[in-house]
Amino acid sequence: MKSPTTISKATIDRLPLYFRTLRLAQDEGLDIISSDELGRRLGITPEQIRKDLASFGQFGKKGVGYFVNELKRNVGGILGLDNHWNIAIIGIGHLGAALANFHNFVTLGFNLVALFDEDPDVIGTTVNHVKVEDIANLEQIVKERQIHIGIIAVPAAFAQGVADKLVSAGVKGIWNFAPIKMEVPAGMHIVNEDLSVGLSSLSYHITRQ
Amino acid sequence: MKSPTTISKATIDRLPLYFRTLRLAQDEGLDIISSDELGRRLGITPEQIRKDLASFGQFGKKGVGYFVNELKRNVGGILGLDNHWNIAIIGIGHLGAALANFHNFVTLGFNLVALFDEDPDVIGTTVNHVKVEDIANLEQIVKERQIHIGIIAVPAAFAQGVADKLVSAGVKGIWNFAPIKMEVPAGMHIVNEDLSVGLSSLSYHITRQ
DNA sequence: TAGATTGTTAATCGATTAACAATC
DNA sequence: TAGATTGTTAATCGATTAACAATC
Known about the structure:
By secondary structure, chain A is α/β, with parallel strands linked by helices. The first copy, chain A, contains nine helices and ten strands. The interface between A and B is large, with 58 and 57 residues.
């Protein structure tokens, strides 16, 4: 595998789509897939796909295509999915509970190992076979269970406080659903998932057609 | 307001962030804000912000900054939020129910006017004061209540079928949470919100630091 | 007037597309 | 061998950054 010098963010964001499509192709029993077919299934040009993949190495066979199993394993490896990161969700409201029930996490190789809330009525309940624990014990439990990724699903006003705790407990990354810009130390990885962006941009487009 | 010739997708996706920050500034009672301060709050360069805004018109005062109320109203208008689009959610599982409870929709000016599911146990229940109706009546109700945007929160296998019905019933846009590439007629606006992309790209980054 | 800050043009940087040689 | 398809280089396109004139 080529050492990734500088890969575009756009490329990285397409890799999960390739992974998803390869998994489906695998389920269909497909052995070989071309960049053309992959592109057709995703609405992405085949050139783009070949370029994206080529930045990490040579995974295909000229004149033939890509072996589905092999490419899926490789793309999964590039994304680091075989690390089977331990994840925790903080804030078990409607969204947090929905996230806890995503079986996509399992498919992608993540382990949901803890849920946290501050509401006494919620603490002690079980969501998707995982017990909700007191957020007061967040730092201790994150360390004990070696949680790598914290998923923030608390109201915006509490998000920074939760992020601070996660950082000091030593997580490697944060997936943030609170609509707020978080301050974290340089080097901490954070992905923001502000749902209002998608809906608003849809509004923009339908407004002017 | 300048007629938007060709605005970058990146610009459009930043507008909701500006809107959100302006709303917060308004709540703080701030009258005027500079591109510098706006940028500081969002982690975006002031030049970028000025460029983005300038593609739609001249909203600021040189030497002064932007009037918070006025700019917020303008950005909201650009995003088409004052159209108060009618929205419906299809698939009231964990995610659909969480979306139905988002009060951000209200803040952004959207009206949640219908919820649909196919499960008889779910039909007839109420989520956030809205009744869940039989998906069999989707097309009729979408027409009757003039629903502009359909939010798809059903399993991937059913998503295309739902999209087809939404299109034939005349929605203007689709916000899709199913991890699948949808086929829709040219001109139909569709925004995909595949949550596994964000988490996987986080995995990519923490894998190589 | 002096200081601050926008709006806009030019320069740079990055990402996509096109073309095609390599090769299965 | 002929046809198909990758991997890579070059060309184009688009987005960001830098610089600065305009002006409040």
